[in-house]
Amino acid sequence: MTSPSNAAVVLVTGGASGIGEATVRLFLEKGATVFAADINEGALAPAVDRTSSFAPRACPIVVDVSSSASCSAMVATVVERAGRLDVLVNSAGVWAEGPSEVVADEEWDRLMNVNLRGVFYSCRAAIAALKETQGCIVNVSSRAGEGAVPEALLYCVSKAGVNMLTRSLALELAPSLVRVNAVCPSDVDTPFLHAQARDYGGDDPEGYLTALRHRLPQGDRGRFVQAEEVAELVFYLASPPAAPITGECIRVDFGISAR
To answer: Structure pTM?
Structure first.
């Protein structure tokens, strides 16, 4: 695989904000050509503008990862414009929480379509191109895919699916020297998390965030993971020194899963 710091071609879904945007920026800083893909066209343009110093290596693509056709078109666009694909990072995701007995069918479909189907559709579309370059896939999963979170059944199930997809696909693609790994962070200080607090924190979103921090083993000294910290691990997993690592779901959670 071409090194991420040596003109690699990288595709990042969910690239308009949060972990996705931090990952886009890091790969650009390391010299890669990066396609930032997102459904939110209004957020995508400003995100790319924030990387204008790396033009023309920063390339926006509008995609709906819940659509197989849209994911196929996304990968086709990358290969057509760049001639190859070395790294796929699946970072698009959505959240929902609440008692399971009141979960609407539409909410189940929304989370599975984006968090799980979207990862599969993007991976499936990219496999042929990644076999050509002996490239790799890094899925942004969650520590909720490794351990249950009360009243977050939909999210936990969707991310557990991503983790099993990661392991299964890693074994399937190993003979082609295509690696597949996942990063599994706990709560990350991103617009995603603050929207979660706004939507589910009632009249006290700050209290919602404080309660999340207090779940960490560090107690009052706990803090949220930073998007840039997750991006650094994504970059490492896509780099040549990580060549022996495949089929792994690596926790980034301050030890909360060790309890």
So the answer is: 0.94
